[in-house]
Amino acid sequence: MNPPEQGKDHASAEEQTLIVGLRAGEGAAFERLVRTQSGRMLSVARRFLVSEEDARDAVQDAFLSAFKALPTFDGRARLSTWLHRIVVNTCLMKLRSQRRHPEESIDELLPTFLSDGHQSKPTPRWGETSNEVERAETRQIIREQIAQLAESHRTILLLRDIEELDTETVAQMLDLSVAVVKVRLHRARQALRTLLDPLFGGQPPC
Amino acid sequence: MLTCKQLIESLADYLDGQLPLSRVAAFKLHLLCCDHCRSYLHNYEATIVASQEALRKEEEDTGPIEVPEDLIQAILKARQEP
What we know:
The complex is a heterodimer. Chain A is mainly alpha-helical. Chain A has helices at 13-23, 27-48, 52-69, 79-97, 130-133, 136-148, 151-162, 167-174, 178-200. Chain A has two domains: 13-97, RNA polymerase sigma factor, region 2, helix turn helix motif (Rna Polymerase Sigma Factor, Chain: A); 124-200, Arc Repressor Mutant, subunit A, CATH 1.10.10. Chain A is 63% helix and 0% strand. In chain A, helix 1 packs across helix 2 (27-48), helix 2 (27-48) packs across helix 4 and helix 7 crosses helix 9. Chain B has one domain. The chains are: A mainly alpha, B mainly alpha. Chains A and B meet through helix 2, helix 3, helix 6, helix 7 and helix 9 of A and helix 1, helix 2, helix 4, helix 5 and helix 6 of B.
């Protein structure tokens, strides 16, 4: 997973106090948890679910699941990490329960080949992208392009490349075969690569 | 010799270290000879890094997400319901 505040897995004294309050059922502790964590959770839910209403529902459902599971929270992970996992799982449950809408094909974003297997169009090599990605405006465009990807592909890209889950775990979570996850991840990356072409431009291959 | 199509189809496995050893040599040989596939691999890897960076820094870019008060109240109310 790519939870917030990686590397800070030990709960602070402040967080310990909050956990004690939550376990004691103190209303103020629950309100503090919701007010401090719901923003990040909504942000994650919006990545997975296009509809704002669905994203809000997912955050609410995730909190209710978390409240029920509090007695089993062992404090080894930070609350934010734990809630992050819960909201991702809640989004996936929501996606599974929704009736599938026909998706736009992403085939036109994939590379094409000649009959002998060569690329049919030359691939201009991007320049160094790291400086470009330092700009907030660039990152915003990248997020918008990720959001353009068809849901079945975007979900897998988010779980593999952003949440950094392994293929087998993603396959289990989505009830798909490992082979399907691999194919969709590859297609999603290729489609995103095409969508980012205008942003990063192309230089002649070296 | 691999074709461009075969190489591009196996990019994800290559980057995951899951390409069978028997194919790694052919993969690298093709890359040596093919500018287009070298560019494709470069751009493909850059896509992964850029998407990770864009989402990792989302909060930094947008500032804390403002959560509608009605959602906060709905969550707190739902907790108290049996």
